[in-house]
């Protein structure tokens, strides 16, 4: 709400943005929700002696955990579909609404973050996008093999004709040859874009808002053009790490239930569950950021902690099964 202003980002838009980002919040908090939901669900069964009745039919604690795990798999598959086709598109639209409205409140007609691309010895930056999603402030640097600057193009704006052709407007074109500098100006200039075929609006978004399809597409483009892609590869592997962490939390709910099966209330269990859930989420975020900082393997960074939690949860379930 700090960004709300009378002439730009209004409170009605702020409410809309919050509502549009709720699916993303649901996906990100899914491990926490799974743990608390498992504690409450199994706790109710235990309170009503239904777990005792189930176990009297020959079901072991381990088999009960496997049943909960199957339900968890269905839950994570549903969350994956929500993430891919609901959360990512809605979050991107919400960020576009916010950035456009905020820019208007600042008496500016541009929005978004600076974009850049590389194609061989050619480097391109776009300062921002206007309300129609067209580039504003285009700079093109072309270097020789010895890394000396061969030419520089500045365009006030550009019109995208198709995926690869831009019409630059208000062009200044500088060239350097044999120690001499020449300057050419023109109203319009056709240029074959170095950017991927993804919409520029999408490229201006943070990597954690991308769907799996968008991440795959963009990672492939970055690798083809020799640009760093570690941030996006890590974001892609997180899409798998998050469901595994959710399954681990569902398994952890089983020991919580059988640790005090005759407890009349579940307040203490929920309190401990909240602490465990928060510590797990914080640990995972720290691990991901450390992996990005130290350029660790993306699969190890994104999957290491979730897999470890699954093994710990399975060990606890097995131990409680043997004890009871």
Automatic annotation (TrEMBL):
GO terms under biological process: lipopolysaccharide transport; transmembrane transport
Predominant location category: membrane
Membrane-topology annotation of the record: Multi-pass membrane protein
InterPro entries registered for this protein in UniProt: LptG, LptG/LptF_permease
Keyword Cell membrane appears in the UniProt entry: yes
One cellular component term from this protein's GO annotations in UniProt: ATP-binding cassette (ABC) transporter complex
Subcellular localization(s) per the UniProt record: Cell membrane
Record flagged with keyword Cell membrane: yes
UniProt entry keywords in alphabetical sequence: Cell membrane, Membrane, Transmembrane, Transmembrane helix
Family to which the UniProt record says this protein belongs: Belongs to the LptF/LptG family.
PANTHER family: LIPOPOLYSACCHARIDE EXPORT SYSTEM PERMEASE PROTEIN LPTG (PTHR33529:SF2), SLR0882 PROTEIN-RELATED (PTHR33529)
Subunit structure: Component of the lipopolysaccharide transport and assembly complex. The LptBFG transporter is composed of two ATP-binding proteins (LptB) and two transmembrane proteins (LptF and LptG).
Functional description taken from the UniProt entry: Part of the ABC transporter complex LptBFG involved in the translocation of lipopolysaccharide (LPS) from the inner membrane to the outer membrane.
Name used for this protein in its record: LPS export ABC transporter permease LptG
Organism in which the protein naturally occurs: Escherichia coli
